[in-house]
């Protein structure tokens, strides 16, 4: 029995056909009428069931499944959650387009070269998806100049474009190479806010109704920004810069944006004037610990070489997804204050690629504190 059905029962509302029928009989008796033939096979009783009992049952079910859940933040659905957000002045975050910078390079510097606005920079296929960026302005490489930084925008909105350094490495201009460098993201891409993330932000807004500004208020303010989830903010309260100071560390879904993005968040925190941890709270990207990883994949001998290579590439991308380099596969991801299990990751990879006979890694679990494990490099090879 659901909580809503139990609530109706406690209020005296009949919730089953038997209860509704009994209530109908009681009402008939109270009115002084008598039903002498209440057999299930009675034409009269079948008529009463059709015109009274079943419609009431439909209304009760509609109350339990569709109406009552909308009265509670925990259970409200897509149709009404925006109204909840409006009540607490929490706007649902729209999808956002990534804005960043890439580096164009060349070896032949004897002539001037132009990279026109709209030039597409793209990745390898990542689980059958190729991510593309477009330059926003005409860029000129002067004689003797071997490289230039160019502003780019993703061709569409979405968090999947926030890829790590080195993923964007192709353009179709002869003699020109390209890459996305370190700290290349100026404004993160984001998906339309998931209902569960929105639900958490609304719940967190309850803190703002109080005069006491705690972690919840700062979490509410920081999570207004694209790419920041309510449950991906951690606090350090132990006066890291002296009495009256605290830090907040933000973990982004994929690659962290440049310092300028964090600076924007800090300016907002300062301008709001909240002082829940004292007089000084600063926001930082979550610190990273870097790891190298080697995986050996054992495959059936009867697979074609092309099939083997597809699996090996997929395994590498899945590992990178677990370490927050891409969003190609749904994997258990690295987190601060946790143990990252290679056994769990192996089981998830087996489900993704059932042809794999065995999979081994060259290291054991990674235990993190206020940091997130990332990959310096990953090597995936076929075992013999």
List its salient traits.
single chain, 384 residues, alpha+beta, Elongation Factor Tu (Ef-tu), domain 3, GMP Synthetase, Chain A, domain 3, 6-stranded antiparallel sheet, 3-stranded mixed sheet, 9 helices, elongated
Task: Explain what this protein looks like in three dimensions.
- With 384 residues, this protein is an alpha+beta fold.
- The chain has four domains: 3-71, no CATH class; 99-187, Elongation Factor Tu (Ef-tu), domain 3 (Beta Barrel); 195-285, GMP Synthetase, Chain A, domain 3 (2-Layer Sandwich); 290-382, no CATH class.
- Helix content is 31%, strand content 21%.
- The chain is built from nine helices and 16 strands.
- Strands 1, 3, 4, 6, 7 and 8 form a six-stranded antiparallel beta sheet that branches. A three-stranded mixed beta sheet has the order 9-10-11. The protein has a three-stranded mixed beta sheet with strand order 14-12-16, with helices on one face.
- Strand 9 and strand 10 (245-250) form a beta hairpin.
- It starts with a helix and ends with a strand.
Which helices and strands occur, and which strands form pairs?
Blueprint: H1 3-10, H2 17-30, H3 43-67, H4 78-87, E1 99-105, E2 113-115, E3 120-122, E4 132-135, E5 139-141, E6 147-154, E7 177-179, E8 185-187, H5 195-205, H6 215-222, E9 233-236, E10 245-250, H7 259-272, E11 280-285, E12 288-298, H8 305-322, E13 339-340, H9 342-352, E14 358-361, E15 366-367, E16 372-382
Parallel strand pairs: 10-11, 12-16
Antiparallel strand pairs: 1-6, 1-7, 1-8, 2-5, 3-4, 4-6, 9-10, 12-14, 13-15
């Amino acid at each position: 029995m659901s909580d809503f059905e139990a609530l109706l029962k406690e209020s005296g509302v009949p919730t089953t056909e038997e209860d509704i029928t009994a209530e109908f009989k009681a009402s008939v008796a109270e009115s002084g009428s008598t039903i002498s033939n209440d057999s299930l096979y009675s034409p009269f009783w079948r008529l009463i069931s059709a015109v009274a009992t079943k419609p009431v049952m439909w209304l009760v079910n509609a109350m339990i499944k569709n109406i009552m859940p909308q009265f509670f933040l925990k259970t409200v659905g897509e149709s009404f959650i925006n109204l909840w957000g409006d009540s607490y002045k929490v706007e649902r975050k729209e999808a956002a387009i990534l804005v960043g910078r890439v580096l164009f390079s060349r070896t032949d510097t004897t002539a001037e070269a132009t990279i026109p606005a709209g030039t597409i920079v793209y990745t390898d296929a990542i689980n059958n998806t190729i991510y593309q960026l477009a330059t926003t302005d005409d860029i000129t490489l002067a004689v003797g100049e071997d490289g230039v930084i160019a502003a780019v925008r993703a061709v569409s909105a979405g968090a999947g474009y926030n890829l790590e350094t080195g993923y964007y490495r192709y353009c179709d201009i002869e003699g020109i190479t390209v890459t996305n460098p370190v700290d290349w993201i100026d404004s993160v891409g984001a998906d339309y806010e998931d209902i569960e993330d929105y639900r958490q932000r609304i719940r967190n807004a309850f803190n703002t109704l109080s005069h006491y500004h705690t972690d919840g208020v700062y979490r509410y303010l920081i999570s207004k920004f694209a790419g920041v989830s309510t449950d991906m903010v951690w606090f350090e309260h132990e006066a890291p810069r002296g009495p009256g100071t605290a830090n907040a560390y933000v973990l982004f879904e994929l690659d962290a944006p440049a310092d300028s993005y964090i600076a924007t968040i800090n300016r907002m925190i300062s301008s709001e004037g909240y002082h829940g941890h004292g007089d000084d709270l600063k926001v930082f990207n979550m610190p990273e610990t870097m790891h190298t990883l080697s995986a050996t994949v054992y495959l059936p001998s009867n697979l074609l070489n092309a099939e083997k290579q597809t699996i090996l590439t997929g395994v590498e991308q899945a590992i990178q997804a677990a370490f927050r380099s891409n969003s190609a596969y749904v994997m258990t991801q690295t987190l601060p204050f946790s143990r990252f299990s290679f056994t769990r990751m192996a089981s998830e990879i087996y489900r993704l690629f059932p042809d794999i006979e065995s999979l081994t890694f060259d290291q054991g679990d990674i235990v993190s504190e206020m940091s997130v494990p990332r990959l310096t490099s990953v090597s995936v090879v076929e075992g013999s």
